[in-house]
């Protein structure tokens, strides 16, 4: 059973209040939990109960945080940002929502910290070649829940995570304000969401391509028809699918796991 939420800590409340005019429909209501299994689970349950678009669920620790394809997401207490946002996009908007979320989180981290952040398809955020943040989109016909995980402080991550992850404070060498990072990410998400709603998805796609420039041209592999396929990641198309160059031409990868070599 999910515990009742408690008052939002000042580090988040003050930053979100200052960003209020830039948040649009997002964060009109915020639920804070010291600990939950998964913020996405809480947000999805609320969405099924017809909660208004823009609800944000935040936790200081997740005991069952998860990433894409069923992977676990290490969520040590106080070491990161673990948040989920309920949105109710049209089918057209939903097509590019995860791409928009990746761009927005990268933009928010840059605005709050000055770090040079890049995106990797479909929506991971990297700094210095290591994973800093990830987005998990889950939903139904009536809603999409965007789970956002950002590594803020150095932490005792599992060994398989530690070798490929980094944190904002590790990169900067100084403490950062978690509330400011979250507020800037949500403000950027609100801006990109409005672009999608206004039919300006090409701006989101162009922004993703610029943020992904250091990652494109790398070799990738994936599973298809029971075999491992390889190719070069060239770009994304206007619908957000990854375009991969192979010997026979190009392939369009819409979903599934792609491993970057």
Radius of gyration: 18 Å
The low-confidence parts are none
Query: What is the averaged pLDDT score?
Result: 90
Q: At CATH's second level, what is the architecture of the largest domain?
A: 2-Layer Sandwich
Cα separation of the termini: 41 Å
- The helix/strand order is HEHEEHHEEEEHHHHEEEEE
Spatial shape = globular
What's the CATH class label of the largest domain?
A: Alpha Beta
How many alpha or pi helices?
A: 8
How is the CATH topology of the largest domain named?
A: BirA Bifunctional Protein, domain 2
Q: How many structural domains does the protein architecture include?
A: 2
Output the keywords.
BirA Bifunctional Protein, domain 2, 8 helices, alpha+beta, 2 domains, 12 strands, 5-stranded antiparallel sheet, SH3 type barrels, single chain, 7-stranded mixed sheet, 31% helix, 261 residues
Please provide a written account of the structure:
The chain has 261 residues and is α+β, with helices and mostly antiparallel strands. It has two domains: 10-212, BirA Bifunctional Protein, domain 2 (2-Layer Sandwich), CATH 3.30.930; 219-260, SH3 type barrels, CATH 2.30.30. The chain has helices spanning 10-18, 39-48, 91-95, 97-113, 159-162, 168-172, 178-197, 201-212, and strands at residues 30-33, 56-59, 80-87, 118-120, 124-127, 130-140, 143-151, 219-224, 227-236, 242-246, 249-253, 259-260. A seven-stranded mixed β-sheet has the order 1-2-3-7-6-5-4, sandwiched between helices. The chain has a five-stranded antiparallel β-sheet with strand order 11-10-9-8-12, with no helix packed on it. The longest helix is centred in the C-terminal third of the chain and has 20 residues, at 178-197.
